[in-house]
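Let us begin with a simple case.
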Amino acid sequence: MQTHSHSPTAAEEQISLGGRIRRALTHHIGFAGSDIDIQENKVKYFNPANPLSPDSNLVEVFGLMRGLNQAALADPYLCRNGGAGHSFSEALSDSANAAARRFAGREIHYV
């Protein structure tokens, strides 16, 4: 895995999140940028019929996602393979700690 130690330029700071994801996938996985279709959240989570009010389906989806995340973090056995290995919450904590150690003092973008 490559690491980059340079500070972003003004031009790099202007790239949208979708553009950064496209660039990372192109660089690290080798996909052609033209083969990657990324919808911005404001498009995915927009109710064109009534843009000023939440879409009930989206509210339900976010509620389900929140509930799943809360359950996963609270259950010390979820995702363990027959009692061996890490639970979801342990794996997430270990990953976050590893990222904090690796990128200490540098800006990162979480997607």
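The second case is a distinct protein. As before, the sequence precedes its structure tokens.
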Amino acid sequence: MTVDGKTVEIEYNKEFGLQNAIHLLFRQPTNSLFEFFADKLGIPIDDTDFQGRNPFLINTIQFATKPFFFKTMEKLLQRNVRFDLPDSNGRTPFLIFYEKGNMTLAN
């Protein structure tokens, strides 16, 4: 890969790089596992991965139209997750939620 005219070696996988257990959990959310990881083990819920995505953003990308999305979103908001954190492309979870056809709920 070339950055600023220099060849650099990619240290992290583009999709999964820098993700912790909470990031991976939000690909297939499970309440009991989330509470175990976040509350018992103290795994940070707001870490960003290689693409600048926190678990809240991954949840929005993957599941914004699924019924359990709001329950998961509520759990993250109760723990003060940064809901307005943009990814490396400048897209916030709220913008993604809106773009996925949730205009009425977003307003």
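Residues 51 and 89 are 8 Å apart (CA to CA). Strands lie at 2-3, 6-7.
Keep these points in mind for the review questions at the end of the chapter.
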